[in-house]
Specification:
Order of helices and strands of chain B: EEHHEHHEHEHEHEHHHHEHEHHE
CATH architecture of the largest domain in chain B: Alpha-Beta Barrel
Oligomer: heterodimer
Distance between the termini of chain A: 32 Å
Helix content of chain B: 40-55%
Order of helices and strands of chain A: EEEEEEEEEEEE
Structural class of chain B: alpha/beta
CATH superfamily of the largest domain in chain B: Divalent-metal-dependent TIM barrel enzymes
Strand order of the largest sheet of chain B: 2-3-4-5-6-7-8-9
Low-confidence stretches of chain B: none
Mean pLDDT of chain B: 95
Largest sheet of chain B: 8 strands, parallel, barrel
CATH topology of the largest domain in chain B: TIM Barrel
């Protein structure tokens, strides 16, 4: 739906072994955090291991496995989910950033269960240091 | 206060309005915040009617504090807009282990409906996964809050779909003006939108695939809307198959969702059956062509129908071409579509209501009365 904005332009921040990028919701409305199914972050072809991925939502960093039970917290329409992971990156220069995001759409139930959308996007940007 | 009216219709005067959903890309892209968007709607004369989706526009919805509610109501009053509908969502799938139970869903809906009323909305748009029993259970709350609950009829559903028929039958039994439908014009389209076809072309769809999709849609249009859920499923699968057959399997699901879920093939006349229960209208559309007309939604016939049937409620212009059209300005497109609506109303011997005071009075009367066939 709004997959062209999945990666916030120029949002890459590199701090030591951690790299973070802002991810935008590809939908027209807020969804409960419990509907965040998965995020994959890849930089220059290397994928952050799932256990190193953290997502900052409403000011708090969380691991992906915390989301399924968070029915009372929302990811709002205009907010970014700041997704970070472990990488070995030189700070300097530009990087190829790839994000894949899977979210459930809680009011659409199909014959296969609650609809899950799967959006992916790539962008090239310079990494800022914090 | 409610009033039952029976008898023949006098010409209707639909109230012009818009839903902020039309400007999703502007809001999501942080070009306008909520206040800026409301002021823009007022300044551009896209009201007086204003519809808002709770979960889209209100941070923290439905848990809004009094300070925010007061701020919102003051802003609406200052801008001279008239609240028509707050769209709320039937989020039955918020848990990962199971769907909400009926009791949980009722409680979830009650919170949203209560907030919609606090914000000043006279109507809450609810979604079709609510059963007739659920609507009946929500009626006492609607009566306490004096708010209309209207289930949206949106493609692939249509006025003769079994779920809609069972809702209508329950409404007839209960006879309350506080229960009804929102008619979404995407239910009764006349073709796929040229802007969507162009977007698929840009994404790599071949001319053969686009021609085949157009032909298949026209075949379904000739056959009429899917009478059952399995029939809908077959059509959904057919569009997926078509994309695979023509070398673009990656577009299949998207094409199927859009061709069956945005472009409903029901005839305009099919609304007549349920018009007494239509409390609000989504003037769904996808674009305006170089002639100044909507090429895939019969806007003129739909407005004429509302006038002829005495409809005095609001029409929210609901531009949805932004799903794929990243290149045109939504404000210009909505402005152009509302011009078509106004012209159509005049051609039908009436006029759209643009004056806020008149709209407020008329909407109150419309929502408090029920024109039963008689």
């Amino acid at each position: 739906m709004i997959s062209d904005r999945l990666i916030e332009p120029d949002s890459l921040v590199i701090e030591g072994r951690r790299a973070a990028v802002d991810v935008r919701i590809p939908w027209y409305r807020a969804i409960p955090a419990s509907c965040i199914a998965d995020v994959v972050l890849r930089i220059d072809g290397a994928t952050a291991s799932a256990d190193s991925v953290l997502c900052k939502l409403n000011g708090t960093e969380r691991s992906l496995e915390e989301f399924p039970t968070m029915t009372d917290e929302s990811w709002f329409t205009t907010d970014a989910l700041t997704v970070s992971g472990d990488f070995d990156l030189p700070d300097a220069g530009e990087h190829d950033v790839f994000v894949e995001l899977k979210v459930y759409i809680p009011y659409i139930v199909t014959a296969h269960g609650v609809l899950m959308i799967d959006e992916a996007s790539e962008a090239r940007m310079a990494g800022a240091s914090q | 206060m409610t009033e039952l009216i029976s008898g023949a219709a006098t010409p209707g005067h639909p109230i012009q309005g818009v839903t902020l959903y039309s400007f999703t890309r502007a809001f999501h892209g942080r070009r306008y915040d909520l206040e800026g968007l409301i002021r823009k709607v007022a300044a551009d004369g896209l009201g007086p009617g204003l519809e808002i989706i709770g979960f889209s526009s209100f941070r923290g919805f439905p848990d809004l504090d009094d300070e925010f509610v007061d701020w919102f109501r003051a802003l609406v009053e200052e801008t001279g807009l008239v609240l028509t509908s707050c769209a709320v969502n039937t989020d039955v799938g918020i848990r990962r282990d199971r769907l909400l139970t009926d009791d949980e869903l009722i409680a979830y809906m009650e919170r949203q409906i209560t907030t919609a009323a606090r914000l000043g909305f006279p109507l809450a748009r609810v979604q079709i996964s609510l059963s007739p029993d659920a609507m009946e259970r929500l009626l006492p709350l609607a009566e306490r809050l004096d708010i209309v609950l209207a289930i949206e009829i949106h493609a692939h559903h249509h006025p003769h779909h079994p779920q809609v028929v069972s809702l209508r039958e329950r409404y007839e039994t209960l006879g309350s003006p506080l229960l009804g439908f929102v008619a979404d014009w995407g239910t009764t389209t006349s073709g796929l939108a040229p802007s969507m076809v162009e977007a698929y072309r840009r994404r790599g769809a071949s001319a053969e695939l686009l021609e085949a999709a157009d032909q298949l849609w026209k075949q379904y249009y000739a056959e009429g809307p899917p009478p059952t859920e399995p029939a809908h499923g077959e059509r959904f699968g057919a569009f997926i198959g078509l994309a695979a057959q023509h070398g673009s399997p990656e577009l299949g699901i998207d094409l199927a969702i859009n061709a069956t879920g945005l472009f409903g093939p029901a005839p305009v006349e099919s609304w007549l059956e349920i018009l007494p229960w239509v409390r609000h209208v989504h003037g769904k559309f996808f674009g305006i062509d170089e002639r100044g007309e909507e090429p895939s939604v019969p806007v003129r016939a739909l407005v004429a129908q509302l006038v002829e049937e005495g409809y005095d409620g609001a029409i929210s212009s609901e531009y949805e071409g932004w799903h794929w059209n990243y290149w045109d300005d939504a404000f210009d497109i909505v402005t152009a579509e509302q011009a078509v609506q106004r012209d159509a109303a005049v051609n039908a011997g009436s006029a759209m209501v643009l004056d806020a005071d008149q709209a407020r009075e008329q909407l109150r009367a419309h929502l408090a009365s029920l024109r039963v066939p008689g």
